[in-house]
User: What shape does this take?
Amino acid sequence: MKHSLLTLLMLATTASLPAQAQDGQPSMLVGYCGDISVDAIGSPLLEDDAFAVYFDDAFTQKYAGCKVTAVAVMWGSTYGINNSIFITPTLSDGPLPATYPIQQEVKDDPMPFTWDERPLDQPFTIEAGKPFYAGARTTPVKEWGGTYYFSVEEAEDASHSLLYDPETQKWKSPAAFPPYAADIDYTHYNFLLKLRITGNSLPTGDIAISDVSGPDYSRVGETKTFSYTVTNKAATPVSGFDLVWSEQGTELGRATLNAVLPAQQSKSFTQDILCDREGAHTLTFTVIPAGTDDPNPADNAATALINVFDTYFDRNVLVEGFTTMQCANCPIAHEREDEAFGTLANVVRVDHHSGFGTDRLTTDADKAFTWFYNENGTTWAPGIMFDRTNLYGFYDAATAFSPLVGPGDVETLLDIHTRQAAVPAFVRLTLTPSYDPATRQLTLDVATEQLGILPCSDCRLNVWLTEDGILSSSVGQGQMLSTGQQDKSYVHNNVMRATLTGTWGTAHDNTDGSRTKTFTATLDTAWNPANMHAIAFIANYNATDPCDCTVCNAATAPLLGAEGITPSPISTANSQLSTAYDLQGRAINAPVKGVSILGGQKVLR
Assistant: This one.
């Protein structure tokens, strides 16, 4: 469980906390928030505990004359606790007092893991120049194991947050508490707080823009869609706004949106923008409320970066999986990959039978490729690489030292593929195979067309052969029949069979222009050419850094002509069969219940 302290920010309310009014006056929720971890260790916890937020002079100046009518707390506890909310001008070290100057006491009522707004017995008037504290306290009503203390892994800005330490009876910054220890059992909390304030002087027209995002790349002349969120931080609705996009102070475009923004709510929008100039562009998006000035224009602008190229090639994403027959989880991973990539034309797939041991399909190259992720001396399966690109910071399961990640779910696989497919390619590969069945001789022409110099320190061309439809066993899909014999009904696809350019490829002429290389190979008699593909890709090679071997582009072609269902007999001697297909022509791991196509024939199961 992650331990962190979020940067403390002034917040408007979310849509889940509707604005209320007192005596006809506008009302809104504002406040600070923090994400705080709490540990319980050792012996029963009996002390009170509390947290507080400091509302400083700038806050009192902004909302002078307004009244605090309620405190909203999110105390993420699943334990039964007594809760209190409070507002006080000062905090004193020592035992927590039984009552605070202004307080709503709630006994034996655990606050849910959601916003819980509690009204004050008496409104609290905000006076300019008189800062104050607001917070909450709790007393457990069941025993926990442990001496109780707060633990914060990182504190970006704790200047407005204080936690009460029951052991020392002192109020402290979260950063002053001991760091989290990974080997200790703990309970995790989120402590969040906002104030309900009312008054006729609350801000109007206060909007903010956030979450601006768009594509990283575009060709000149393409129109790209950017998305963004606008939040109305004011106490009254905003009737509309202008969106202005500019670069280095020069306005490039403007759109007027008549959308009504309810008080203290957020809405998402999109804007299409023509990319008409080559280069790396930092676009500034600014929102301007209609009919009024924004009292807080500092949060009205946000930026997004897009790289626009004169031209580039579409990318085929090289997807390399790591799998072995004894891997119990690999069949499930194969199913997810088949579902994610089965209908996509811009995917080049290959499976390396290595990682979780080896099997009879493992090649020497497969063994060598575990270098991509065995920094700690441990390899595993199933695993997957996309263009040998490091996904750290983009994908939760990624690490900084490897391009290999866990296969994840179908949605995650598609998200990563979409991200990779959007990366421009400046080289295009075309494969032309020719096969002589009498001699089993394969001739393969690999043509490359390149735009300028590729971002490689050591560009390598890699040419491989793969095979589908290999019938064998898998731990994850039925090992033993009732006869006591091993069930070999699992079909392995995308299996690495050979490399025609060595494990790490052959040198590529990294210059602008077109060229062709020819490769030859005699196919092993155990291989079924009707189920085989040639794969070629260009990638950087850095023998000291697995994350610096990124693929520039890839291509694939079936050895026997156009992609499709090719009749091919079952070869029991070699434990092979033709690829199985569903009625939509998609390759599947094995004939399914109902009608499927195997060896060019319809099969009913």
Notes: The chain is about 5% helix and 40% strand. The radius of gyration is 31 Å. Residues 330-341 form the longest helix (12 residues).
